[in-house]
Amino acid sequence: MLSVLVPGGSGQLGQGIAGLVPDAVTPSSAELNLRDTREVVAAVTAFADAARAAGKSPVVINAAAYTAVDAAETNEKRAFAVNADGPRVLAAACSSRGVPLIHVSTDYVFAGDATSPYEPGDLLGPLNAYGRTKAAGEDAVLGSGARSWIVRTSWVYSKTGSNFVKTMARLEKERDVLSVVDDQAGSPTWSRDLAAGLLELAGRVSSGEGPSQRVLHCTGGGSTTWFGFAQAIFAELGADPARVKPCSTADFPRPAMRPAYGVLSNASWREAGLTPLRDWADALKAYFAS
Q1: Residue 117 falls within a domain, yes or no?
Q2: Is 84 exposed, middle or buried (0-12, 13-18, 19+ CB in 10 A)?
Q3: Reading across the β-sheet that carries 148-153, which strands appear in turn?
């Protein structure tokens, strides 16, 4: 039996896990401040003791993150505290209590100049503050001594929080025509599918059969551009996809640079014997159907 603690539990992924495991412990970032060592040690200790007393195996899935990509450019210190210092503290606490840790990361740790999907071992080269802080968080976890795994994902959306799907649904009602970037590629990932994948990994880890490879990629299958994603969203809404027009990144400047190509290879996930997530378009249909 598995018992799961999910810091950042009020976010998209945390809520996705809670929807699949109702008894998961899912404190919000306000309820569990990962930068407070005493608070984290106490929380992990209490969680681990309760799980073991109930005959369950404890696993921590860290979904806490500073994800405001543009804001991080002027608040990198804050982003670093959440995305790097927090995971370092959490990993140390997990190590001391013998609790496995699964830490969620992002495609933004890569430069986006590849021509084929990124593998876990490919060279990192983040273009922005958010990516730099997430890369630092990966290093902190892997160097902590904890039994830990990094799972990189991309373009996550859900029914909660702020995300591209919800933004497009709102703009479809507000604008007759919408311009969306067509020169950035990635793999949309429904939080519920990602949650199921992470729980499958957690089950393997708790049974002592965790993958030997400590960095894995897990995203929706296939890839598209933001433009293609937006057109698919409009279609699911029953709106005319032709109302979405392509534009370039240069036409839509943002404070933080984005990787032009953020597609992650899921080969490492399959090779670990884990179930690949469904194609992103099929997941999007299921999201709207639900």
Answers
A1: yes
A2: buried
A3: 2-5, 57-62, 101-106, 148-153, 215-217
**pLDDT tens, position by position, 96-107:** 999 999 999 999
Counting the structural domains of the chain, the total is: 1
Q: Which domain holds residue 272?
A: 2-161+189-220+263-278
Residue 283 lies in a domain: no
| 130, 157, 261, 287: the active-site residue | 130
CATH number of the CATH domain containing 211: 3.40.50.720
- Is residue 43 in some structural domain? yes
> Is 66 noted as a catalytic residue in this protein?
no
Whether 285 is covered by a domain: the verdict is: no
Cα–Cα distance, 39 to 265 (Å, whole number)? 37
Is this structure's pTM higher than 0.85? yes
188-218 pLDDT per residue, tens: 999 999 999 999 999 999 988 999 999 999 9
In this structure, how many other beta carbons lie within 10 angstroms of the beta carbon of residue 238? 8
